[in-house]
């Protein structure tokens, strides 16, 4: 499958699409590591409205598209924090996220970002470790009465040649 990747700053038009893609990913990809109760706490519905616009506002976004449309995306804040990383079930494990990540990291290096950090899910951890990220700590996030496990991870770009 060939994926096209575009980079932009998130705007109001992106928010609804990104929110739906994230929700579909949580419920269609993360089911391998998180229970139905955990996934419902993580993403009970696609985020929309002002809260979603504020959450995505001003972030750099890389979106992979296939013949059916957007299928994976990642966002990066100016401080090097990778905030969102999601792929639809049809694209998971097929290279879309890899293409998005490669574009994101190349941009970060070109912009002089020294370190990338993120809070990474159980599902995404192996993907990130293959790309040189390492775990700083395991985290237990309480959402309602549910505990969601993820990992604070980082990759030092300035230490690599």
TrEMBL record:
Its EC number is 2.3.1.-. Keywords: Acyltransferase, Transferase. It is an enzyme of class 2 (transferase). Residues 3-158 form the N-acetyltransferase domain. InterPro entries: Acyl_CoA_acyltransferase (IPR016181), GNAT_dom (IPR000182), N-acetyltrans/Recomb-assoc (IPR052564). SUPFAM superfamilies: Acyl-CoA N-acyltransferases (Nat). It holds the Pfam family Acetyltransf_10. GO terms for molecular function: acyltransferase activity, transferring groups other than amino-acyl groups. PANTHER family: ACETYLTRANSFERASE, ACETYLTRANSFERASE (GNAT) FAMILY PROTEIN. This is Putative N-acetyltransferase YafP. It comes from Saltatorellus ferox.
């Amino acid at each position: 499958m060939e994926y096209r990747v575009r980079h932009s700053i998130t705007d109001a038009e992106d928010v609804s699409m990104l929110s739906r893609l994230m929700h579909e990913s949580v419920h269609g990809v993360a089911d391998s590591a998180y229970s139905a109760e955990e996934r419902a706490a993580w993403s009970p519905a696609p985020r929309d409205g002002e809260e979603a616009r504020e959450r995505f506002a001003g972030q750099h976004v890389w979106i992979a598209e296939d013949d059916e449309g957007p299928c994976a995306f990642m966002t990066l804040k100016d401080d090097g924090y990778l905030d969102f990383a999601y792929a639809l079930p049809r694209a998971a494990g097929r290279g879309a996220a890899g293409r998005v990540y490669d574009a994101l990291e190349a941009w970060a290096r070109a912009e002089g970002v020294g370190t990338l950090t993120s809070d990474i899910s159980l599902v995404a951890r192996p993907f990130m470790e293959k790309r040189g990220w390492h775990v700083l700590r395991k985290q237990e996030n309480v959402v309602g009465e549910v505990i969601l496990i993820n990992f604070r991870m980082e990759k030092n770009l300035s230490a690599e040649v």
